[in-house]
Specification:
heterodimer; A: mainly alpha; 3 domains; 14 helices; about 0% strand; elongated; B: alpha+beta; Arc Repressor Mutant, subunit A; 3-stranded antiparallel β-sheet
């Protein structure tokens, strides 16, 4: 391979990565410029251009990928401002998907090392590899958000937000109270739902499915009822004041945490309904509410800012 | 120590990034081809690597700041670049900004030196 072959190889490696319409023109110019630079270098060295000199010169010129990239405007798919958020969301999502996958596969009985390896293999094939859809979706989402921001002639301006504002306004609080009243209605006797929707003509099996156990009625039901009821005066105070105060926020968090504890006790203590299918369904629902509430408070705590010197 | 050297070269690179564009535009009031431009910049104390300068010329052209044409007369064919009207306006604006920043930095660094 002589010096010319080296130059040709380099120019091709750069040009092949450029858009077709400018590829040949850039290649022609680049080859001329490289030749001229090399000639000067050879004159300074006092001998003709050789292969070693050409390789050294082109290595200093830069990797063909880097040089080709410089010919085009920088392509940013995800805004640098979103980089950390993208990484964090990707990692949290992947950990959840992998964790749920592990739970699913390791619930089956594992009696030997072979069973363990088999479960691990199934997890690898059906949870870990397919989980890559999640970063893919995020790339598309963040990329679109970045594109939309760039299309806007005027970037959206920052607006101050009051820390004590009511999310969704007073209407959301009223909706919250309606939801709690519905919850109370169901908690006191879920069979009222059947009377309400079917005017008392529902099948006896349906009534049986929604019959509480005595244990639940004696132990957890009174606590859950009181905790639900306590939300109503809290929300009424927020509606009247038109904002959350620090004390109201603290009360909301404590009430939420105590409710989570009561639900966890309910889930672990014994059956809620006489029928096992209803019991499983309601406990699944309670697990979801508890998990969602705890994650919500955890994220809130993580995102809280309390200016103080380190 | 290695970290310090790496850090300083990164910061220097960032400092140079914007300056390279102004320096390049400043030398294209009259038509020049890539290698000639590089020599002119190096002679005036602003050496720029070939792998950075040549792509930059194409980028500035595609941004509508430079015009260019091939000159195939005489020896080897060369592509000559020069400022167009928009490039001229931008250079004037950047020169003003640069001088403002340079004066401010001069004052700031002088204060620090005292």
């Amino acid at each position: 391979m002589n010096a010319n072959d080296v130059i040709e190889s380099y120019v091709t490696d750069v040009a092949v990565q450029l858009p077709r319409k400018q590829r040949n023109d850039v290649a022609f110019e680049l080859r001329t410029l490289i030749n001229e630079g090399l000639q000067d270098k050879a004159e300074a060295a006092g001998h003709d251009v050789d292969t070693a000199m050409a390789i050294e010169f082109l290595r200093a010129f830069g990797r063909p990928e880097d040089v080709a990239a410089r010919y085009r405007p920088t392509l940013i798919i995800i805004d640098p401002a979103d980089g950390h958020r993208f990484l964090r969301t990707s990692v949290i999502g992947l950990v959840i998907i992998w964790g749920l996958g592990l739970l699913k596969f390791f619930q089956q009985p594992i009696g030997s090392g072979w069973d363990f390896l088999q479960a691990l293999g199934q997890w690898w094939g059906t949870a870990l590899i397919p989980s890559m859809w999640w970063p893919g979706v995020l790339v598309v989402g963040f990329g679109l958000a970045s594109w939309v921001r760039k299309q806007s002639p005027q970037p959206s301006k920052w607006k101050p937000r009051a820390g004590d504002r009511i999310n969704g306004g007073r209407a959301a609080m009223v909706m919250g109270i309606v939801g709690i009243l519905c919850g109370l209605f169901v908690l006191v006797d879920p069979r009222w739902m059947l009377d309400f929707f079917w005017s008392g003509r529902a099948a006896p099996a349906a009534y049986e499915a929604l019959t509480y156990t005595d244990t639940f009625l004696r132990h957890q039901a009174p606590f859950l009822l009181v905790l639900l009821l306590l939300n109503i005066p809290l929300l009424i105070v927020v509606i009247v004041k038109g904002r959350w105060s620090a004390l109201l926020r603290r009360m909301e968090i404590w009430l939420g945490l105590v409710t989570c504890a009561a639900m966890a006790w309910t889930i672990l203590d014994g059956p809620v309904f006489m029928a096992s299918a209803s019991d499983r369904a309601v406990k699944g629902f309670m697990v979801l509410i508890t998990a969602f509430t705890l994650i919500y408070y955890g994220v809130k705590l993580h995102r809280s800012v309390r200016p103080a010197p380190n | 120590m290695t970290y310090c050297v790496e850090h300083s070269s990164k910061l220097e690179l960032e400092l140079r990034r914007g300056v390279v564009v102004v320096a390049t535009l400043s030398q294209l009031r009259a038509p020049r081809y890539g290698y000639e431009l590089r020599q002119a910049l190096a002679d005036k104390g602003m050496p720029i690597e070939e792998g950075t300068l040549y792509p930059l010329l194409r980028r500035l052209e595609s941004q509508g700041l430079l015009k260019s044409e091939w000159n195939t007369e005489g020896g080897s064919p060369r592509r000559y670049y020069s400022l167009n009207a928009d490039g001229q306006k931008l250079l004037e604006k950047l020169t003003e900004s640069w001088q403002g920043m340079n004066d401010a930095m001069g004052r700031l660094l002088k204060e620090d030196g005292q």
